[in-house]
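As a warm-up, study this chain.
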Amino acid sequence: MTDIKKAGPTDTPPTPSAGPEAIKAIPVRHYGRYVSAIITLGLLATLVYAFAQGDINWAAIPDYFFDDQILEGVKNTVIITVLSMIIGVVLGIVLAVMRLSKNPVTTSIAWGYIWFFRGTPVYVQLLVWFNLGIVFEYINLGPIYKDEWSSFMTPFLCALLGLGLNEAAYMAEICRAGLQSVDEGQTEAAHALGMSHGKTLRRIVVPQAMRVIVPPTGNEVINMLKTSSLAVAVQYTELLRSTQNVSQTSGATVEMLFLAAAWYMVLTSVLSIGQYYLERYYARGSSRSLPDTPFQKIKANMLSLGRPKGGAA
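Now compare it with the structure written out below.
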């Protein structure tokens, strides 16, 4: 018998497997971005140079930044903004519910209110409130209150009513959009569980609608902060009027306008931070993981700088 040699894996020595070839990635160069960045920086430098050469006393801005009159104007601006937004939000929710009601009377009244206040400029509304003393000599609320109209309608009340009632018309539309964003099936399910209409609205619909309502409301707050400067028309001493008063005594008209702009930017930045955290809070109902806060992003970037970079795949 002849021996038959079988060839198998044991007869061939194993060959070392060659690893994957390293990929040499060459980043794509975007020359258009370089050109646009250079042009933008050039325009910005030209603008800064133009203002630097102007006859502007820049030192007056830090000198008056914390002046007592300016700080009083800042305080009044914050107060009128907060109170006007409270009126706007509360009345806006009521108007939104009335607008969604099946009662044709309440629906028509809410629609008429929104139509009137959205159709007239807020500056005109402020002047109307300020000049109502020409039409009415007294305000008479029966046994509750009675006084001369000029004593009752102060500049603060004119600004509060003019800004707050106008804001309610816009907040009504924002709230209506938020309420309608909640699926009707959840309302039907709540009613099936025995919840009343008011309890369903308060416990089921409104918490979910807040996710839609909060972002535009934050935008309205910032807009109200700037719109409050129109209250100067009714002689309310807010930030802009305070800077005008200071400019009349100091002669630094343009500098005080820059100062007012700086304060508005500071206040807007603070409100923007608050809006960010409020949106993050109400995002819990729709997102599995909340976005990082700015502090968490900075901390993650700092930690990533200390880690060794991975090799090419």
